[in-house]
Design a protein that fits this description.
By secondary structure, this protein is mainly alpha-helical. It has helices spanning 3-11, 14-23, 29-50. Helix content is 80%, strand content 0%. The mean pLDDT is 76. It is elongated. Residues 20-36 have a biased composition (Basic and acidic residues).
Length: 51
């Protein structure tokens, strides 16, 4: 995963961002995966809505 993608995953997930802000380190991989799944499902819903 590129650093930019990883940072985006953390910054767009409120829980992951709060973890990073509090601890100053990358959140657990489980939290990052959850953020990616949320983003992917959100993009899919957006595409269906725009048609």
């Amino acid at each position: 995963m590129s650093l930019i993608s990883e940072a985006y995953s953390v910054l767009t997930n409120p829980e992951a961002r709060a973890f990073h802000d509090k601890h100053g380190v990358k959140p657990p991989e489980k939290m990052i995966r959850a953020a990616k799944e949320t983003q992917a499902s959100s993009r899919t819903k957006d595409r269906k809505t725009k048609k």
